[in-house]
Amino acid sequence: MSTSKKDSEKTSAGTRGDKRLSVRRSGVHGKGVFAKAALPAGETLLDYEGDRISWEQACADYAAAGTAGHTFYFDLGDGTVIDGGSNGNAARFINHGCEPNCETEADEDRVRIITLRDIAVGDELFIDYNLVIDDDDPEERALYACACGAATCRGTMLAG
């Protein structure tokens, strides 16, 4: 995905090289983020980083890339998106789970990943993506199938 400097701005929130986390192959999907140390509930782990782009630019890049159903976009709800695929960090590899152990908290200049409960060494981090799409086409919706394996899995990454 390409964006011009004019269309993007790196998120202001930084993250240090957190030795409590590692990125490796996930049994759920692609890469995942795993705890290398015990993480207490309520802990801010890292920020979601990447270039800030307009929603229009994100849609154009998505269409051009042909990666149906897969992006590293985090919609800020104000017409801008953080593109974790461009200058992003480990947060972009946190997978969806229907029984998440982390959540996101956004304000005007950063998106934080925060633990919802204690997380043991070796556990994968999950957030509930609660995605919203404006398409009722079953083929399009099928792109968002969930593979988390949780007992309460709703079968989709889309919001209920």
From TrEMBL:
Key words, A-Z: Chromosome, Methyltransferase, S-adenosyl-L-methionine, Transferase
Name of this chain's protein: SET domain-containing protein
Span list, region Disordered: 1-22
Higher taxonomy: Bacteria, Bacillati, Actinomycetota, Actinomycetes, Jatrophihabitantales
GO CC annotation: chromosome
InterPro entries per record: Post-SET_dom, SET2_Histone-Lys_MeTrsfase, SET_dom, SET_dom_sf
SET domain span: 19-130
UniProt cross-references to SUPFAM superfamilies, sorted A to Z: SET domain
Domain Post-SET as annotated: residue spans: 142-158
Biased segments, Basic and acidic residues type: 1-21
GO molecular function: methyltransferase activity
One of the GO BP terms on file: methylation
Origin superkingdom: Bacteria
Compartment(s) where it occurs, according to its Swiss-Prot or TrEMBL record: Chromosome
